[in-house]
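PROTEIN ENTRY
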Amino acid sequence: MKKFMREASFFFPWMENRRVHFVGIGGIGVSSLARWFLAQKWAVFGSDASTSALLRELKKEGIRVKIGHKKGNISAKTGLVVYSSAVSSKNPELLEARRRGIPTLSYPEALEALTWVYMTVAIAGAHGKSTTTSLLSLMLVRGRKDPTVIVGTKLREFGRGRSYGSNFRDGKSGMLVLEADEFHSSFLHYSPAAALITNVDREHLDWYGTFANVKKAFLEFVGNIRQGGVVVLNRDDATLRLLAPKMEKIAKDRGVRVVWFTVRSEEGNALRSRLHIPGSHNFSNAVGAFTLARILGVPERDAQKALEDYRGVWRRFEYKGKWRTKKGGSVKVYDDYGHHPTEVKKTLEGAKTFFEGAKIICVFQAHQARRLKTLFGDFINAFNAADSVIILPTYTVLGRDTIDARYSSKKLAERVAKRGKVSDVVYCEEPKNIHSIVRRITEENGNKDCIVIMMGAGTIVKYTKNLLRK
């Protein structure tokens, strides 16, 4: 069966029945792949549990989307079904496709085919993948490499009139730039010719079980790079430095070149003044992208210009709007996808440095109860750079997540307050009260400048809209 799946995934671009259905098409990665199929002139269909702005964009582009999962969504004419890694094996559409004998591929299995068809450049790491993939892609575009891009965020530059941008670019050069996620070991399906690893951290422990297994997965990823390829590694990441001997041995055995980058290099010093988004983590991402872009033949001036023009991407410290206070101050609102303690910590530290003198207010929604429980101690220490923290109830996945009262968002608020590093910590049971709490904080601040960062990977993005609407 595994052999059949590998062969099916390899040959699907040339299948005669060019009609594909995506189960869970509303995911940011799956929707990007759906756009690739649309660009190849396939008839594209899909379904998801609930509607969203992204699904409305897909419909406008010609993809036919159904809300709700039911076996009737699978037509007898369907030639291929691709499903999100988050989809249950008991999903009625998946079961119906298999009953009909229609080839089914998971999202990473489908992407696996592209890594054989294209000269693939894969960006991996616990944090910073989307930003690094975006920066590298824009450098390659500026350097006239014309890549196809599949990324887990939306770029204005790929938008072509869409509300914010797109997570897909249809290039003509035969080069593919791919965000390689370690979630469910997805990135182990890919066979890139070039790769970059931003960092290795204690992420997705619900899947890997232990940090040791996470490290093993990244070693295996390096082992999947094509012979004669190249891997770019972050020397500033402590875990990557510890893994260096094993990684370099694996690379040497496969004839893969290893290139290390650091923000303390000549390239780092030269790029420091060219980046216009906050955070030392984003600067590290920029240096990594620049290093790989130069290896791939992008002229230095083009790579630098792409970096200068970059203003961030969707839900990565994305500016959403502001309002003025009665005494002439401003409250600027930003939206950020950060949901791991390291991401929260780095984003808040970056904001504190970038907006010197402004009050930093973090509104945080934990993403999934199991992650909160596993990393609870790290979360307690993640908010130190904020002046005020508002913590919302945990975002949970129905049927897959059970909240342990000992590790709830309310308990997190209590522990952050008790630690005493943040002067004002509030647990907000009802998101509709966010605005009144923020207003109270700004008034106590003398109506001076405040920065509100709405942070999380769940439903918090819709509360951002409500906050600005009020």
Remarks:
- The CA atoms of residues 366 and 394 lie 5 Å apart.
- The chain has a mean pLDDT of 88.
- Residues 238-253 form the longest helix (16 residues).
- Residues 318-469 form a domain with the Protein-Tyrosine Phosphatase; Chain A fold (CATH 3.90.190.20).
